[in-house]
Write a sequence for this structure.
């Protein structure tokens, strides 16, 4: 790598030298390399000295881990809570020791932020040898690596403020629901821009899940998001936890009760087969045989039972008897199409149950919102 070279000479004003001193020094004031007159170091003028002896081997790129939680920087000596402008010279010293014969090197720098995590840095390395201060200029890039220091890691392992509890409404959550809710909550927190938002731990309890999280507000926000996505009701209760710096500290437990059903579920309710077309604020059941929809409060459909059913796009065929059947797109199996209306259609989305097919009012891939 090419580098710029400055020469700083430690030369006192000549007129202040006594004639004796002048005479003494004049014997070694010619550079053996270029013959120029002036102070010499190991027989070389400052310029030739630096040409032969670079101060450091410049590096092009340095990584500087920074704790996203407390702002500490990781240097070779460990995590250090210093300003960036103090961390950088130390990083440079650790990466670029002085080359012989320099005894010491000092760094000054100017950092320009290209973006939040990339610094374009102009560096001056000042090497000291006897009376000479040789200055070597070069550029490098410093990449700030978002990281988590050891003490913040430990703190996070213990610390929580709010609790998010996810339970079933008068039921235990199914293993699939537990898996889905856990994945959903962890992804929400991971994607959060807020570095203070984190989950300390997750526990599976009583057919539900407990998330211990860093902020009360986070517990409440996650509760709303879980309820919105999975269908459920939210309640929260603050509990006095103690005092911190003279203020009362509350821990909030936000509780989500997930309804028994998801949008798209097929249920048997009071003898009829229905599909769930909405779960909030009311549960809406659409009778598959008649096509009629009715709204219920969640507690009024607790008696409904989910039944096994698939939903997909199928072709319809009219038999010689006049009956219409739906044809399974993969197995080509035929089942009677129960819905009275739309029998003239040649195909559509059906709910496929053990005893027949029904026209559905939902798309084949129902999203759970
Ligand atoms: Zn020279
Ligand atoms: Zn930290």
């Amino acid at each position: 790598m090419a580098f710029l070279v400055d020469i700083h000479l430690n030369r006192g004003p000549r007129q202040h030298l006594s004639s004796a001193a002048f005479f003494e020094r004049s014997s070694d004031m010619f550079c053996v390399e270029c013959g120029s007159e002036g102070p010499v170091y190991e027989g070389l003028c400052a310029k030739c000295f630096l040409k032969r002896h670079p101060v450091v081997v410049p590096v092009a790129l340095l990584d500087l881990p920074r704790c996203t939680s407390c702002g500490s920087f990781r240097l070779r000596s460990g995590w250090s809570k210093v300003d960036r402008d103090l961390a950088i010279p130390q990083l440079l010293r650790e990466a670029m020791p002085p080359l012989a014969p320099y005894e010491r090197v000092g760094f000054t720098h100017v950092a320009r932020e290209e973006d939040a995590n990339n610094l374009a840095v102009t560096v001056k390395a000042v090497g000291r040898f006897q009376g000479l201060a040789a200055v070597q200029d070069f550029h490098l890039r410093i990449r700030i690596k978002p990281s988590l220091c050891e003490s913040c890691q430990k703190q996070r392992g213990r610390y929580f403020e709010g609790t998010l509890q996810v339970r079933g409404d008068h039921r235990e959550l199914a293993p699939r629901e537990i898996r889905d809710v856990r994945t959903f909550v962890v992804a929400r927190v991971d994607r959060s821009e807020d570095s203070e938002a984190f989950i300390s731990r997750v526990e599976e309890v009583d057919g539900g899940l407990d998330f211990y999280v860093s902020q009360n507000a986070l517990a409440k926000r996650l509760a709303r998001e879980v309820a919105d996505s999975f269908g459920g009701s939210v309640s929260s209760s603050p509990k006095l936890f103690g005092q911190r710096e003279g203020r009362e500290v509350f821990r909030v437990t936000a509780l989500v009760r997930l309804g028994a059903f998801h949008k798209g579920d097929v249920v048997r309710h009071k003898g009829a087969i229905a599909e769930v077309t909405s779960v909030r604020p009311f549960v809406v059941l659409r009778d598959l045989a008649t096509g009629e929809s009715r709204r219920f409060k969640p507690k009024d459909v607790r008696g409904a039972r989910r039944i096994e059913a698939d939903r997909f796009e199928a072709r319809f065929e009219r038999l010689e008897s006049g009956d219409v059947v739906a044809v399974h797109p993969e197995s080509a199996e035929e089942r009677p199409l129960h819905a009275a209306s739309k029998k003239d259609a040649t195909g559509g989305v059906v709910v496929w149950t053990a005893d027949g097919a029904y026209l559905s009012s939902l798309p084949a891939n129902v999203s759970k919102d």
Summary: The pocket of zinc ion (ligand 1) is lined by residues 31, 33-34, 36, 44-45, 47-48 (CB under 6 Å). Residues 1-27 have pLDDT under 50 and may be disordered. Residues 282 and 297 are 5 Å apart (CA to CA). The chain has three domains: 4-147, 159-258, 266-359.
